[in-house]
Design brief:
This protein is an all-alpha fold. It has one domain. The protein has eight helices and no strands. It has helices at residues 6-30, 36-66, 70-77, 79-104, 110-128, 132-138, 140-163, 170-196. The structure holds protoporphyrin IX containing FE.
Length: 201
Amino acid sequence: MRIPTWTPTGTIVLASALAALSLGLGFMQAYGGWTREGVLAGTAITARWAFPFFIAAWSASSLARLWPGGWRAALLRRRRAIGLAFAANHFVHLGFVVAAVSTFGETRPLFVYLVGGGAYVMIALMALTSNDAAQRWMGFKRWKLLHAVGGWWVLVIFANSYVSRLMEKPAIAGPAVALIVAALALRIAAAVKGRMRPQAA
Ligand code: HEM
């Protein structure tokens, strides 16, 4: 029997988003419930949970180009599902952010709302266009540009968030910054390899 391709994708997206919601609510409960501290704990843990999904999706093609085959090929085949899972997880982060800002007076400078809000627009556009029909409709070049700009946008925000937390939360920000540096190194190495021996993306 042929299993429809949306089945594993839907399962990964739904399971990871439910896990994000459970983690967020669990941390909220553990840190004071429906209070400022509780909601901020939910906000932080949901961003932490979404982060590895983003890094895995962003690094999949570099890994597969540098070391073809094996789990890298499997990761590349599932990149769309992992990217969609990141989007779903990160919208759970947005839910906690909205609660923190609207109910508990948490504020950020306008610049943060513009750059962070813009990132959510990009994430939504990338998620909506993560299918063959949208890719055909947009044309590969435009589709690639949207996903490249969106990917870098999100990476820069994660980098800024974790670099700025290195002193305050070294146990979580340290490994996160190390992962970001590793992902960048993989990108550069894969681009160099691609230039030496051109391959399909
Ligand atoms: C308007 C948009 C956004 C707002 C207002 C916002 C707000 C917040 C708040 C209130 C926290 C938790 C409290 C704190 O530690 O300061 C937080 C944590 C975080 N957010 Fe967001 N956020 C936004 C969008 C984003 C985006 C787009 C990303 C990533 C692409 C992101 C990544 C993070 C990270 C990495 C953390 C830290 C988690 C940790 O402590 O480990 N946020 N955000």
